[in-house]
TrEMBL record:
<protein>
    <submittedName>
        <fullName>LysR family transcriptional regulator</fullName>
    </submittedName>
</protein>
<dbReference type="InterPro" id="IPR036390">
    <property type="entry name" value="WH_DNA-bd_sf"/>
</dbReference>
<dbReference type="Pfam" id="PF00126">
    <property type="entry name" value="HTH_1"/>
</dbReference>
<dbReference type="InterPro" id="IPR000847">
    <property type="entry name" value="LysR_HTH_N"/>
</dbReference>
<dbReference type="GO" id="GO:0003700">
    <property type="term" value="F:DNA-binding transcription factor activity"/>
</dbReference>
<feature type="domain" description="HTH lysR-type">
    <location>
        <begin position="17"/>
        <end position="74"/>
    </location>
</feature>
<dbReference type="GO" id="GO:0003677">
    <property type="term" value="F:DNA binding"/>
</dbReference>
<dbReference type="InterPro" id="IPR037402">
    <property type="entry name" value="YidZ_PBP2"/>
</dbReference>
<dbReference type="Pfam" id="PF03466">
    <property type="entry name" value="LysR_substrate"/>
</dbReference>
<dbReference type="InterPro" id="IPR036388">
    <property type="entry name" value="WH-like_DNA-bd_sf"/>
</dbReference>
<comment type="similarity">
    <text>Belongs to the LysR transcriptional regulatory family.</text>
</comment>
<dbReference type="InterPro" id="IPR050389">
    <property type="entry name" value="LysR-type_TF"/>
</dbReference>
<keyword id="KW-0804">Transcription</keyword>
<keyword id="KW-0805">Transcription regulation</keyword>
<dbReference type="InterPro" id="IPR005119">
    <property type="entry name" value="LysR_subst-bd"/>
</dbReference>
<keyword id="KW-0238">DNA-binding</keyword>
Length: 322
């Protein structure tokens, strides 16, 4: 066996290495024959011989020697082969995910990739979506740890980009150009009140008129200290303004206050039907004015847009609401 004069590892071999040469190395190692390697790679034998010469020069080792009609690996080639083989298999798996894979295969890869998920949303949105979200994700990723994180709109693009967040849910709004979004669910606003406090208004029929709505005191629920709530913003755009007597952070608190005082609460229907206290006297009424539906969107970073695993994850999330 003849050794090359170039000292082994005297330079960084990766700096001058063509990835195809490592693929060639795997074929020669496994087939032990240049002719068979040329046939497998659909190349001429002279091209294979030339490529092997380049690889030997780059790595500073003979790599293979001929004995009894076969090519045998050197000690260095034997050490190199398992690492190169595994690396190529890993690369192929990564590249395959950028092509069409079956749902079952994507599901298998997702089990490995999504051990933890962090999804940002406001408190009031969490009440609407989080239970369904957890149920759906755990059907396909039963061991996944799911965290609901408070949404910080000013930092959303950065947190999605660096992977601090995997997904976000918020009302439909204008966002940074790096963020991709699409509708997740739509819901209508309704009116909730505690009927004993509105006996006179409900004496003739179970409705609140537009005049009664704007003459009454209201509870506003928002996790933010300042700024209009979603419903107040929609009312303002329509040229209306209601009287908000109390502003609190949670709907559970709002329901307690409704029972104590003559107040109205405007909220999405799903919240009203899901979290209304199990007691007599509560009523869910249609609003006496027309407001646009509340629309919640799912948000993610554009770099996740072409990743099939994140595409699979989004499909699971959106399927929970359709």
């Amino acid at each position: 066996m003849q050794k090359l004069s170039t000292p082994i590892h005297s330079k960084n071999p990766l700096a001058q290495l063509d990835l195809n040469l490592l693929r060639l190395f795997i074929y020669i190692f496994e087939l032990k024959n240049l002719t068979h390697t040329a046939e497998a790679l659909h190349l001429s034998q002279s091209a294979i011989s030339h490529a092997l010469g380049r690889l030997r020069q780059a790595l500073g080792d003979e790599l293979f020697y001929r004995e009894k009609g076969e090519l045998h690996p050197t000690l260095y080639a034997k050490r190199l082969y398992p690492t190169v083989k595994q690396s190529f298999e890993n690369l192929e798996q990564i590249f395959q995910t950028n092509h069409l894979l079956s749902d079952s295969k994507l599901g298998e890869l997702a089990q490995q990739s999504f051990a933890k998920l962090t999804i940002a949303m406001h408190d009031e949105i969490e009440l609407i979506v989080f239970n369904k979200l957890v149920s759906q994700i755990h059907q396909v990723l039963p061991n996944c740890q799911i965290t609901s994180s408070r949404l910080n709109r000013s930092a959303l693009a950065h947190e999605l980009k660096v992977g601090q967040l995997d997904f976000a849910i918020d009302v439909a709004r204008v966002v940074d150009s790096e963020i991709v979004h699409q509708p997740l669910l739509r819901d209508e606003f309704v009116l909730v009140l505690y009927a004993p406090n509105f006996a006179a208004e409900l004496a003739n029929e179970p409705t609140i008129t537009q005049a009664q709505y704007f003459a009454s005191q209201h509870i506003t629920v928002s996790s933010r200290r300042l700024g209009l709530s979603i419903e107040d913003s929609l009312l303002s755009k329509a040229g209306w303004q209601r009287q908000s007597k109390i502003r609190c952070q949670h709907y559970a608190t709002a329901f307690q206050l409704l029972k104590q005082d003559k107040l109205l609460l405007t909220l999405p229907r799903q919240l009203a039907t899901t979290f209304l206290p199990p007691a007599q006297g509560w009523q869910i009424l249609d609003l006496p004015i027309e407001l646009p539906h509340i629309e919640l969107h799912g948000y993610w970073h554009q770099q996740q847009q072409v990743d099939p695993l994140y595409g699979w994850l989004r499909q699971q999330i959106f399927s929970a609401f359709h």
